[in-house]
Write a structure and sequence with these properties.
297 residues; alpha/beta; D-Maltodextrin-Binding Protein, domain 2; 2 domains; five-stranded mixed β-sheet; 11 helices; 30% helix; elongated; Glutamate ABC transporter substrate-binding protein; transport; Solute-binding_3/MltF_N
């Protein structure tokens, strides 16, 4: 899979355009989203997950409620962001409009449980594909490739990358059960790693000086920087590749292939680009290409 570079110089110049990316109101269900055309002729083989969802007329999708630009709960109580758009694209391929989606909060540490227990039909929640998770669930995609970075206070010039964390004695915050929390352990001592259930708490800890850095995927950090009103900045030193996938029940290869086919069509017909531009594109204007899709298993 090719590494996808993000042109952060362009992002910095575009931050002013992003101030409305996390808003919401009662008159517009997804203020920064798009109207995804629904497939009126969607038909599926009986017994498949797709057929069951089409027949039920609803789909339950797990996503984050605290991730600016990807999955953030709006003022109207509904989530918005690029992950939400991906969920809408899949639902539309099933013949289901956005108002037939039941959104379920899916924090990092509970995503596998939600899928295994059947509390959701799929999860789109900045969900990095890795071998450990594949032991419990299956992934469609990836639909986006991010990279881990660091967020620090706007006036902090001592932290210049992950290698500077241990020498400076910096305390770092991440989220329990997340890939970034595991990756950062090679750069910090255990006593200097703080874990919370959501990244918003890490941002609060950075603002109050309890930690000196927050680490997760770059796009998530850009959203937190955006919400920080000048208090934070991105170090801008990506040190991992994080392919985001759609989590489904283990072994449901038919549903996985359907999602992959739907994503491929969305890129070809321009819906993928529209969805990006209406959400994360408010900060990162250049639409990323759809990554090479992994085999379904």
């Amino acid at each position: 899979m090719k590494a996808r570079s993000v042109r952060w110089g362009v992002l910095a110049a575009s931050m002013a355009l992003a101030l409305t990316a996390c808003g919401g109101n009662s008159e517009n269900r997804l203020e920064t989203g798009t109207d995804v055309p629904v497939d009126p002729n969607a038909q599926f083989e009986p017994g498949t997950t797709m057929a069951k969802l089409k027949q039920s007329g609803t789909i339950r999708i797990g996503t984050k409620f605290d991730q600016p630009l990807f999955g953030l709960k709006g003022l109207d109580g509904n989530p918005q962001g690029f992950d939400v758009e991906i969920g809408k694209i899949v639902a539309a391929g099933l013949g289901l409009p956005a108002d037939r989606i039941e959104w379920v909060e899916a924090p990092s540490k509970t995503r596998e449980e939600l899928i295994e227990q059947g509390r959701v039909d799929m999860v789109v929640a900045t969900y990095t594909i890795n071998d450990k998770r594949k032991q419990r669930i299956s992934f469609a995609g990836p639909y986006y490739e991010a990279g881990q970075d660091l967020m620090v206070s706007a006036d902090d010039d001592t932290i210049t990358g992950p290698e500077s964390l241990r020498p400076t004695g910096a305390k770092v915050c991440s989220v329990t059960g997340s890939t970034p929390a595991e990756q950062i352990k090679q750069y910090v001592d255990p006593e200097n790693l703080t874990l919370f259930d959501v990244y918003s708490k890490c941002a609060d800890a950075l603002r109050t000086g309890q930690v000196q850095a927050v680490t997760t995927d770059n796009v998530i950090l850009m959203g937190l920087v955006q919400k920080g009103n000048g208090r934070f900045k991105l170090v801008d030193r990506q040190f991992t590749k994080e392919p985001y996938g759609v989590g489904v029940k283990k072994g449901d290869t038919a549903f996985c292939r359907f999602i992959d086919d739907t994503l491929t069509r969305a890129e070809a017909d321009g819906q993928y680009a529209k969805s990006w531009g209406a959400t994360a594109g408010k900060v990162s204007p250049e639409t990323p290409p759809l990554p090479q899709l992994d085999p379904c298993s």
